[in-house]
Task: structure prediction
Amino acid sequence: MPDAPQSSRVPVGVDPNRASIARVYDAALGGKDNYEIDREVLNKVATAAPEVRDLAVDNRAFLIRACRFLAAQTGIGQFLDCGSGLPTAENVHQVVQRLNPEARVVYVDNDPVVLAHGRALLEENEYTHFVSADIFDPREVLESPVVRKHLDLSEPIAFLQLGTLHHYEGPRGDVAQIMKAFIDELAPGSYVAISHFLDPENEYSEVAQNMEEHFRHSPMGSGTFRTLSEIEELFDGLELIEPGVTLCARWWPDGPQLKELNQAQQCIAGGIGFKR
Ligand code: SAM
Result:
């Protein structure tokens, strides 16, 4: 995407003078769909944690492993992905449809660039759909005609809130209420995957707090780091699948970990819960 804010090249509804969560994340993953202002946010956060891009990479790697697990091990064939982000190398539908070609995926996002690219690139087959909705509004998401048409909510689903809930900017306690409202509506047998910025309450806590400060006071304007127990509260009413909520890098890694985790990798956690 070009940096220059030339109005004729900027999609409707996109403000190149404001950073967007999806574009900052795309920049962190090494994508091309971002503006200078998005990269500036990352550079600012990098003054607190030079390896900040690894936080995004670990989050995305967790998404891929979590989706692979859900598609391979649970028998679930319908996925609701809240906050899809911009299309990247391995998107949810590609990961799960490789294992189950008829797995249905509905992506939800509200970023105009994500919507434009998502419709073009993510809706690539009859089992994959995209809807614009507020992922912090359970009713809007679950009552969306697209969700209702393509997912059967009376049957178990995999519900994904990956790298999203830390961007909620309302009162701190509301996020648990939002998750509870979603979880209450899921059929028994459903799975919920969450990844979230972590304040590890150890020697890396200060780095987490500094990253939060930079994210929240940047042109992106959001990024709350929660403690492990605060993240566990988001799974209220669910049974956590082993190993529970842990660093994304440590959640069923692809192989032995020979390298020490850097400070940014210590600040992103994830887990999967099961609704009995
Ligand atoms: N889930 C992907 C992942 O983990 O790789 C992408 C995460 S990205 C950091 C967060 C996404 O959530 C962005 O695409 C952003 O546009 C979307 N998002 C943030 N707030 C939202 C809201 N209120 N409604 C819908 N989407 C939202």
